[in-house]
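Hi support team,

I submitted a single chain yesterday and got back a structure, but I'm not sure I'm reading the token output correctly. Could someone confirm the output below corresponds to the sequence I sent? I've pasted both exactly as they appear in my results page.

Thanks,
R.
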Amino acid sequence: MTILSSNARLGRTGAAFVAALLAIAPAAALAQAPKASSSAPAPKLVVVDEKKDVGVVPKGEVVHATFRLRNEGKADLHITDVKPSCGCTAPEFDKTIKPGAEGKIVLNVDTKAFQGPMSKSALILTDDPEKPQVTVFVMFNVKPFVDTHPVGFFRLQALTGETATSTIILSSDEADFKPTAVEPPNSYLKATLAPAADAEKVAGKGANQWKVTVTTTPDAPEGLLGGYVKVTTGAAKQPELSLAISGYVKPTLSITPLSVNFGNFEPKADPVRRTVTIINNNAKNETFLVTKAESTVPGVKAEVVMADKTRAQVIISVDDKVKKGVFDGFVTVTTTDPGKKEIKIPLKGVIL
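Hi R., thanks for writing in. Yes, this is the structure output for that exact sequence:
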């Protein structure tokens, strides 16, 4: 091999190498060049104070805590929702905050069910891509300027047609404490207000004590009792006091189930049976009896079985001679209960 041919080959190789470098160089230069920003203008949420301590508040007063919000971004900030931690808190808020502007969220907390140091929160949802949600807190100390004894609510439990009574003693160190009015939540609840007698007063609570009494009327509906009794206290620091009612009006007779549905079925040799249980809740009615049960549907029979002095069973059966098709009627039950001498139990079914 001659020197000339070797140099020719080296020349061709070198030229190819240089060409490859020239091809790579623009790509490398582009890779090292700074990238142009492609992000659109966005909002930026700044909460000036995420925690608010409003100090001591009278029991029953509504706390109003205001949180300032700033938008330090370059697009409108949207508050999409504010979710309080409990139903006692109602929020108000600005839905849109312009760039560079300020808005607010107000948390309104009802304190009538609280006492002592409390903390409530709310979750703020926004369209800030960096901070889509943030939590704010309000702290407060609920002080009852009017004390309640033995508890802060009325306990009431009665049977249908009867009455129940519950009493709360009010006391206060405030010089202007002098209750003037009491208002029950319903017409079937009666409330009275009077100075507490010496025998009724709570020891160590001063001489100025008042008695609030709540009584159910005989026509109070069966089921749960609720609501608040409002007392005008005369005390400037707590002019109104809300006292919760917790109770239940129980029926003199419990009936399970209240209706009977046989559904779709085909009678066989053995009768199809359903059982209704009747329980006497009235301890004063010691002679309770279920004396009779009659069905209005031909082929459907009802039989009474007294399990003991407080419990009876009505056994409802369908014999194989009942006509095909839909039946709809009642079983009428007769009892010795003064308030429910007659009970109608609906019956339904389809005979195939």
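A quick pointer for reading it: The radius of gyration is 39 Å. Let us know if anything else looks off.

Best,
Support desk
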